[in-house]
Give the backbone structure.
Amino acid sequence: MSDHEPASEPDDRAGDRSEPLEERPYQRDELTGAPSIVLVNTGDGKGKSTAAFGTVIRAVALDWPVAVVQFLKSSDWNTGEEKVCRGLGVEWFTAGDGFTWDSDDLDETRAKAVAAWGFAADLIADGRHRLIVLDEISYAMTWGWIDADEVAAAVRGRPETVNLVLTGRDMAEQVVDVADTVTEMVKVKHAFDRGIRAKKGIDY
């Protein structure tokens, strides 16, 4: 393990957090390395995809091959993160059909989600990418469009150097169980609650 310490928050072993720590809350020899990590960003709060794209930037800085598969957003969105990440060499696939309430044909929307998972599963198994983001994949599982057990099996059986980030509300328990790090975003309040629509440059 490198002597360079990551800038992270103290873990649950830190005890009372009302005062700055004067001793390290863990022993370095307690820690081990892993060839890859699976992250899940879930919950009702804002920031699930945003956090995933922050991880993408870190991976790109290390010259990792990176891919993003978006399960809901369509090519019509033209998001800021897609523009920047494509410019950095990230392979970006907008495989969705947009919001379900805007769909003219839910069967087609479902078929696109199923096809997106087939594509993503092949991408994972191929092993060429050091990081793959499966953005908003949870919804396709919640709605029964793709099988959560199948997703969990693909995550568990991935090539050992493939890191994964899966995002979306109500992430399937099967996926949570096989993940290494699970973060639940909690909404304290949101601008949308006051009738403020999503702002370009902040929300997409």
Summary: The two ends are 36 Å apart (CA to CA). The chain has a mean pLDDT of 87. Residues 106-126 form the longest helix (21 residues).
